[in-house]
Amino acid sequence: MTCPRSGCLVSRPARASSDSRVVWTGRRDKEMTNRTAVAEYVLLGLQEHRNLETVLFVLCLGIYGVNVLGNSLLMGLSVLDPRLHSPMYFFLSNLSLMDICGTSSFVPLMLVNFLEAQRTISFPGCALQMYLTLALGSTECLLLAVMAYDRYVAICQPLRYAEIMNGQTCVRMAVLSWGTGFANSLLQSLLTWSLPFCGHNIINHFFCEILAVLKLACGDISLNALMLVVATAVLTLAPLLLICLSYVVILATILRVPSAAGQRKAFSTCSAHITVVVVFYGTISFMYFKPKAKDPDLDKIIALFYGVVTPSLNPIIYSLRNAEVKAAALALLGGGLLSRKMAYPLCCSSPLSCTVG
């Protein structure tokens, strides 16, 4: 017997409701799968080139040692030698600390992974590594611009140098550089880890670099890409523009100095910083603007050079191109610096006595 029209009308919505529950449940399960928490990540590195990884282990271990020892020596000399108690060496100490922290955030684990068959990192470890590398890289760009401004004031406005670059101003500029870099990294990290990753956990890199992590996302990353472009323009290109403008004015001022000896002395105070800027931005430009390599492992090696080698060059550059640092190092080796520091009253030792560098 056929059911009456009213009965058919009642039964059909019931089946539709049941079907909708199945569809809704299926979508919910799919979303839950997409957002499955990943407990750990696998860092591929150069797993297909084990012999090359052995060579990289030896090289990176030596370079990391030079980085830590060299930058620690620079910071120590800046504290011990009263001749280095000036804004330039205060900012240089910040740069040295940044280089040590930046490489220490990923190099030790990377060295261990070079010797391990299974290279994994926990989710909190990966998030912290990405946060620190991005934060310290952004901060370095800003700090290099601050150091260029310090050189501009020292050469172009020497009579007002002590007034402009006083201790309070130097500390504020350093704090602003660190704070801006870490705030930007926090924003980028929150946007990245809010994406769905669909359980993907294999990172094709030596460490948790933000672009490598974004490649794992299975959602829309257009907002992330936009924010990265904006951050790059504000925190990388804008400081570079300020550095270039500062040195254009500095060069014009130096060329107006009547004596050749005065020109050489003025330029020598800037040469180390110029070299560091060229190495830093030159490596970034080569890494991001070069044609994409056919072998992706080559891109990873270039990124490794930027992250490990470049920070270790800063103490070498400042040691070779700065007479005050060389004199302080020789005094430390001869034992005269420590004895002079012990005889120098602690209350009279100012880390930011504004002498023109």
From TrEMBL:
Residue ranges constituting the G-protein coupled receptors family 1 profile domain according to the UniProt record: 70-318
Statement: the UniProt record of this protein carries the keyword Transmembrane helix: yes
Keyword Glycoprotein in annotation: no
Topology in the lipid bilayer: Multi-pass membrane protein
Protein name: Olfactory receptor
Sorted UniProt keywords: Cell membrane, G-protein coupled receptor, Membrane, Olfaction, Receptor, Sensory transduction, Transducer, Transmembrane, Transmembrane helix
Role this protein plays: Odorant receptor.
TM segment ranges: 55-77, 89-111, 131-149, 170-187, 226-254, 266-289, 301-320
Cellular location(s): Cell membrane
GO CC annotation: nucleoplasm; plasma membrane
Database matches in InterPro entries: GPCR_Rhodpsn, GPCR_Rhodpsn_7TM, Olfact_rcpt
